[in-house]
Design a protein that fits this description.
By secondary structure, the chain is α+β, with helices and mostly antiparallel strands. It has one domain: CorA soluble domain-like (Beta Polymerase, domain 2), CATH 3.30.460. About 50% of the residues lie in helices and about 15% in strands. It contains 13 helices and 7 strands. The protein has a 7-stranded mixed beta sheet with strand order 2-1-3-7-6-5-4, sandwiched between helices. A hairpin with a 2-residue loop joins β4 and β5 (about 125-135). The longest helix is centred in the C-terminal third of the chain and has 30 residues, at about 265-290.
């Protein structure tokens, strides 16, 4: 294949991640102290997509991780992408060694029970996102944990659940060479945009079920109270997953400003931040609506209005002033004659 042997000419590419620190070099040893549990498994392959991009276009699609590493060494300046689903011990070990991933970030990526966060390890960003989708038949919000490693010339995604599906995002990004040419930051933006866009159907599903409860509240069905409780719990969990993303996006925006990333990239990030602000606001409104649907809340509200709107009680009769008592005389003292 002609592209595999033709070396690609490296060129300057503005990158926030290059300015964070030194660039990763190929062929480094495995980070010391990385403990990868055997429970993850070492037999199957967890790789679902491997890509090498140059000039905003996908020029190679390696079949294995070693082929991807060889292609990256042969084409300096290219950007590589690796997508993993339920990462295995062997795959994570190879990626940690080749990409010089920090041992703490690797340990966090193996354990699929992390809070949404954004952390910088040397020249690599470690991002944890919680995607969400609403299961209308059981009225539950299903969360999917996604870990990202964003380096100077690579992006690694590790999905620990079926959600989010990044296939459509990848196809859309590869159809926009101008955006993809902006480097790893463009891939990070596209994944953030995909996760945040998935919040809108969740909010719509929650609000629809809450509207149904409002029509059934006076039906006398004892299951309504249980349904209100379960929906309130789903709303709270959804808000916990989406609220930290505001701080993460603000941190990215501040870093883009500090390291003079292109205005085009910052504009894309602001768009994601604007969309994410709507999700916590809508979920908070849904939680309040769900709370006011409770029969106990409605009874309390009616009693409160009755107390406020009823006739005011008559004013209390003032008490007569107490007579001032003479001071007590000690027993040892005699009264004056």
């Amino acid at each position: 294949m002609a592209e595999q042997t033709r070396p690609l000419r490296p060129g300057p590419r503005p990158s926030l991640l290059h300015r964070f620190g030194r660039a990763a070099a190929p062929g480094r040893e495995s980070p010391p102290g990385v403990a990868l549990p055997d429970a993850v498994g070492a037999q199957r392959s967890s790789v679902v997509n491997l890509s090498l991009y140059w000039g905003g276009r996908r020029v190679l699609a390696p079949a294995t991780l070693p082929e991807l590493f060889d292609a990256r060494r042969a084409h300096p300046g290219a950007v590589t992408g690796a997508g993993l689903y339920r990462p295995t011990h062997d795959d994570v070990t190879m990626l940690a060694r080749e990409s010089d991933l920090h041992e703490l970030a690797v340990e966090d990526a193996i354990v699929a029970d992390q809070r949404p966060k954004l952390e910088l390890y040397r020249d690599t960003l470690f991002v944890v996102l919680h995607a969400a989708r609403y299961l209308d038949d059981v009225e539950e919000v299903e969360f999917g944990e996604l870990h990202l490693f964003v380096g100077p010339d690579f992006v690694i995604s590790m999905r620990h659940s079926e959600s989010p599906d990044l296939t459509g995002m990848r196809a859309r990004l590869e159809s926009e060479p101008e955006l993809l040419a902006l480097g790893p930051e463009a891939i990070l933006y596209s994944i953030l945009d995909r996760v945040v866009d998935g919040y809108a159907p969740v909010v719509a599903g929650l609000e629809n079920d809450i509207d149904e409860i409002e029509t059934e509240i006076f039906s006398g069905d004892p299951a309504v109270s249980r349904r209100i409780y379960e929906l309130s719990r789903e709303v709270i969990e959804f808000r916990r997953a989406t609220h930290p993303l505001n701080t993460m996006l603000q941190g990215l925006h501040d870093g883009f400003d500090k390291y003079s990333v292109s205005e085009e990239m910052r504009r894309y990030l602001r768009d994601v931040a604007d969309h994410n602000l709507q999700a916590p606001t809508a979920s908070t409104g849904s939680a309040r609506s769900c709370a006011t649907c409770s029969p106990s809340t409605r009874r309390w509200s009616r009693r409160s209005r009755t107390r406020r709107c009823g006739p005011s009680p008559p004013p209390a009769t003032p008490r007569a002033p107490r007579s001032r008592r003479s001071p007590r005389v000690p027993r040892s003292c005699s009264r004056p004659p």
